[in-house]
Design a protein that fits this description.
Helix content of chain A: 40-55%
Radius of gyration of chain A: 25 Å
Distance between the termini of chain A: 73 Å
Oligomer: homodimer
Structural class of chain A: alpha/beta
Strand order of the largest sheet of chain A: 1-6-5-2-3-4
Number of helices of chain A: 17
Number of strands of chain A: 11
Order of helices and strands of chain A: HEHEHEHHEHHHHEHEHHHHHEHHEEEE
Shape of chain A: globular
Chain lengths: ~400, ~400
């Protein structure tokens, strides 16, 4: 029998940084029930163990799970192993590979280890939906499919759009929201958490629970985090992500690179800074009392500390200041050797200072590349051979000592 | 190692009375392969064991199965037991009940017994798709669902129409064509037979076999038989059906009631009369050499003999002639007792001479009801009490001796 903080105190924390909350009164009622019975809420969050390389965007959801843990509720970290093993056979061009049981387990393990930067490992219940979905079998799945109509499924925007645009929707994609709903039914979830892009699936779970006479789950989603560019949602493939496994100085430096307007959003979604405190700093920045860089440095420090520790945060800050405040060069600039005759574009790409030649060209066009402190304007520049290495700088924080052999 | 009749002889029989044949060249190639290897073709026909009360319409398909048996091929009578056990949970108003294993088995048994009026029991292989569909399990079904897109599924006319008209399509209905296709894959069917309304499902099987690198099945459908009214397709609920379990005189009499134009169609679809013979009789009727009633009596005789025997056919014919040619009354007119005060409409309905009061009213309006040989014009007529029973005649062949008590 557990005890919980006062309901409105719980509500204040749970409402923080959400995109959807369906609905608030029902959540309040469930919290009241928990208080009355001493039984914590069952809070379910599903994870697809196909992409174990997590970035800050993933932590927004985990932080919401953590809030429930802090309040004394049962948080289930649900690995969608069954569907991951099936893979996505649709889309001829980009067939998602089917994962073996071993790969799924390994991915889930990596996922969990990264998630435990945020979640309390002792309070996190790990489960896998193969446990009950495999039991369903052919008959169970067909019966489950019989509990929902195509028209309701096509209320999902992306399905309707894809169908209208003649983009293929595989029949099994129609089954995923139903198996996910069945997870909630099986677990008798009180709350399901997910990213805002999951809202439709979460609501299907709510509907099916209701139709089976269960108390429907409350649905809470968190917004998709905007990446370092301040424009697109954070994504590894877009290149605007900070990975949880990044080095302290990378996390620090890339955080310092985000637009000022974005930092308030990150403070809300990526830290536990009290909302009132964030608001008062925002006012201080607006009135000129506080420099925005101070706010961003505090944010960067907190992010490094979360995924490494306080010492790493202090060290990352020290190095950042020496490079950018002092205009200096970091201690550990890597060397790169190139044969004579290559253009600067090819050298930058080869040295890994840009992801491709076209990115290198773009950076040069934008004035983001310098050699020995002088901006490079000509992408076809061919550096001469010389005894001393050149110091090549790309963007604000990428350096190489270039030797021409 | 079997031997088979010459290919073109086989083709002539197999082409008879089909609605679709996809495609002819491939069937010819498969027959050639059978001739070469001595391996008979695998011919699959699925049956839904939910409606065991068979009528003549069902025999059209069985006759096509029988043709394959006559030619020496392997005919599989496939009971769709798995899907029958699931039932059809869609459609709030008319939920199809889920059948138990015992009910499915009993229905399948009834189905088979009736089917063996046409099929050779010794040559018919009975199988049930639960045998392999249950094995598929959750993963197998989801994977199968991944092999087809929604857009292709919506090429089926009735799906598209229902979606457009906001009539519900349950997600599991999208799975049925796929499980049916999987049956064909599992059995490595050379040919799948079905009613013309099944053409889409049969073609899905053909496509999936091709996509899995199997020699795709040839698809043959037979038309839906027109019922005794000469208008609607035969159906018990429409009331234009002749059930296989009907009494000889019912089969005979109802066959004699069909429109003349329909009898040629029935000769093709319900008998083995050679097509050339049917054509020459048709010519004889057209030139006035042959009375159409002769053709119809021959048809009626053959139908009774099929489902009963030659003696029953002779007896049914004798009785038919005594009633209709001689204008007489059959030997075994049933008695019906009614209390005084009832209208003739109510009496006719109660006595089972009409299916409802409204049908009784319609028959009276059409002049189809007589008492003691006199047409009844007034539906509110109340027959008086009298010592002798009335002879009530409804339509051409329904009689009762009516006693008013």
């Amino acid at each position: 029998m557990s005890t919980f903080p006062p309901i409105e105190e719980q509500m204040a924390l749970l409402r923080r940084a959400t995109a959807d909350l369906v609905d608030e009164d029902q959540l309040r009622a469930k919290l009241a029930r928990a208080e009355e019975t001493g039984e914590p809420l069952v809070v379910k969050t599903g994870f697809d163990p196909t992409a174990p390389d997590l970035h800050l965007g993933h932590t927004v959801l985990m932080r919401k799970m953590r809030h429930f843990q802090q309040l004394g509720h049962r948080v289930i970290f649900l690995v969608g192993d069954l569907t991951a093993m099936i893979g996505d056979p649709s889309g001829r061009k980009a067939t998602r590979p089917q994962l073996s049981k071993e790969e799924v387990d390994a991915n889930a393990e990596t996922y969990k280890q990264q998630a435990f930067h945020i979640l309390d490992p002792d309070l996190t219940e790990i489960d896998s939906n193969s446990r009950w979905l495999s039991e369903l079998g052919t008959e169970g799945i067909i019966r489950l499919a019989g509990s929902y109509t195509l028209a309701r499924m096509l209320e999902r925007d992306d399905f309707r759009t894809r169908l209208a645009n003649n983009q293929p929707i595989s029949i099994h994609e129609l089954l995923y929201p139903l198996t996910q709903a069945y997870d909630s039914i099986f677990l008798e979830a009180d709350v399901e958490l997910g990213g805002h892009d999951q809202i439709f699936n979460l609501l299907v779970g709510r509907q099916l629970m209701k139709e089976r006479g269960l108390d429907p789950q409350v649905v809470i989603t968190v917004p998709l985090l905007v990446g370092t560019d301040g424009v697109e949602k954070m994504s590894k493939s877009v290149g605007n992500a900070i990975a949880l496994e990044d080095l302290p100085k990378e996390i620090y430096g890339r955080t310092m690179s985000i637009p000022d307007e974005l930092m308030w959003n990150w403070c809300i979604h990526l830290t536990e800074q009290p909302e009132a405190e964030i608001e008062s700093r925002k006012a201080a920045v607006a009135s000129g009392e506080l420099h925005p860089k101070e706010v961003k440095m505090e944010l960067a420090r907190q992010l490094v500390a979360q995924f490494h520790d306080d010492d790493a945060a202090t060290e990352a800050e020290r190095e950042f200041e020496s490079v950018f405040r002092g205009g200096g060069v970091p201690d550990d600039v890597p060397s790169h050797a190139a044969v004579q005759g290559k253009t600067i574009v090819a050298i930058i790409a080869d040295a890994g200072l840009a992801t491709s030649k076209s990115e290198a060209r773009r950076l040069i066009r934008q004035g983001g590349v310098s050699i020995d402190g002088e901006k490079v304007a000509d992408p076809f520049l061919v550096p001469d051979k010389r005894d001393e290495p050149y110091l090549v700088k790309v963007g604000k924080r990428r350096f190489a000592r270039l030797e021409i052999a």
